[in-house]
């Protein structure tokens, strides 16, 4: 589905977004002190925090199924998977797989801050066509592209944020649904299907560690590195309705992880909803802080549902928890 954005809507969206997001790029752009501001502010978020929607920016191109987001000073990077042939589950596993590979195309969309499409970068090879959660190290966007099935394989790419040059950095022997790049040590941390496992590699792809996720609150879909040795992750889990009721319930949330230990430092639900009825943290999320003021930017809807994909901006002022 394609949406047409009126000039008035675009101007309004740009104006509101400029107020909401101006003056800073992604949290990953910043030096360590700004990251510590983000950590302090996020640790004061609770279920009682009041979030206000300050911008809604419809995207006027086919976004397919968005996965990850990075917001920089003048660009928005949005990863997405285009499904050409859906996967089909096997009655019993075949060669360790629970489903067929399907077919698709991996995209990294480059937008200006008003949501205009500037570049469509295609990523992946063979059965690896599913981009996941992405991260920015100040120069490059880190993007995993995996098979669209658990316990499979993935490539990890970097895309130069200025030239858009693509580099395949290494291959991983699992479905990697998201990565963060430690700007201090150079290590790369990625999570598996449903974020049940975490891996640590060197920036050349040598595996250093593998551990289980200690939290079963949500499945992480998109994470951003936060100095030092932390990641701020967002995600969703599907919860069944009460007996006798149909459908399911999406529980969304945010979590701050210690990348050295795997421990969860702080986690909270984020129960705000899109036009298509999805929880806001379903897939792409970017979080920034300006002092005690937090800005959460999301894109939960696919292009083929509801009103199509829109970038939503939420803001909140937080105070120390007591």
Number of strands: 23
Distance between the termini: 47 Å
Mean pLDDT: 90
Individual helix count: 2
N-to-C order of helices and strands: HHEEEEEEEEEEEEEEEEEEEEEEE
**CATH class division:** Mainly Beta
CATH architecture classification name: 5 Propeller
Task: Give a description of the structure.
- The chain contains 2 helices and 23 strands.
- A hairpin with a 5-residue loop joins β19 and β20 (264-269).
- The strands form 6 sheets. Strands 8, 9, 10, 11 and 12 form a 5-stranded antiparallel beta sheet that branches. Strands 1-23-22-21 form a 4-stranded antiparallel beta sheet. Strands 2-3-6-7 form a 4-stranded antiparallel beta sheet, with no helix packed on it.
- By secondary structure, the protein is mainly β.
- The chain has a single domain (7-317), classed as Tachylectin-2, Chain A (5 Propeller).
- The longest helix is centred in the N-terminal third of the chain and has 15 residues, at 7-21.
